[in-house]
# Entry
Amino acid sequence: MSFEYFIGGRYLRARKKQAFISLITILSTAGVMVGVMALIVVIAVMAGFESDLKSRILGGQAHVVVMRHGEPFKDYARILEYLETVEGVEAASPVIYQQVMIRSAHGVSGAVLRGVDPQTAGQVINTLANITLPHVGTDQRRQRTAVPVPGIVLGKELAKNLGVVKGDMIYLISPRGMLSPIGHIPAMKQFEVTGFFESGMYDFDGSFAYIHLADAQKILRLGDAVSGVEVRVKDIYQAGEIAEDIRSELGFPYWAWDWMRKNQNLFTALKLEKTAMFIILTLIILVAAFNIASTLIMMVMGKTRDIAILKAMGATDRQVRKIFVFKGMVIGLVGTILGVGCGFLLCAILKRYSIVELTGDIYYFTTKLPVRLEWLDVVIIVTAALVICFIATLYPAYQASKLDPVEAIRYG
# Structure
């Protein structure tokens, strides 16, 4: 061990008359620890929130949607055949979108009606993998009533708002009705609730209702047209490039947009919030760094005679600087290690136990607090903490190295 590290280690163990400096050293270490711990926990929670939100959004919507400007989308069969040849596409399914009203015996609620093909919809959207949508034209089991009734699958929260259970009858009211002598009459059709779905996203579960594609075409008077074609891709982060390729190949009047473009504002806001929280919480480490600087400054003032003797014995300015940089970095390193350990422990507790419950209508989904530790974030936090602590040691170490040994011994 070089004598710089030896002396720096001795300075860390303050004597009784320097107990005040020792207390400041402990507080500086604790400050770095708290700052690093807070950064790790907050960034882990925000990364977990973003990851969980992303997975739930992708579980309830397609990666890419192909639509048509102006005219009804009638040639979707040709588009489906083309999409099967596109590299990176796993599955595609036609879909119909329409805002409707749903009336039950216990209430009325607005909803987003989605007409889907049960055979292919589950291959595109995960939450539809196990749903059943009997169609009156093909399912003979619906003949137990005098008038065949098609089936409808409701989101869990939507069913709760309507007060319905499986087997209940509801009325679907569409704005695309007919003209009569008394004006426009909305179309109304009875459906039987055949099941529920739960994506974990409050917005989806509280607004979506699924019926068979043929039933949607009939009640919305679309003929053989659809609203668009939903596509699932192999790599979700290549969805934008695949959508651009589809747009280029099909040309006008077709267009395609991907999930990243649709939710761009949300994920941009999350990224900005994560960056802002990192900067704000870094100020805690900055305050601890000021404590480290003040500790070293008082140490330099108290060790003036020792520094002068070292320089008189041949110690260079660089070696003197090294002594105080070493002491400051030990404080920062110990605080950082303790902060990382406490941060990991607190993240594990939050991940294992439901200490904080999220409300679905505020936080998009209902779940316990999501936590996701990413090693890149940890490395950035540790690096930032050590760099701040290192910068805090430079001024005191520089002042110590510039002491004149003759003047220091004479007046120290």
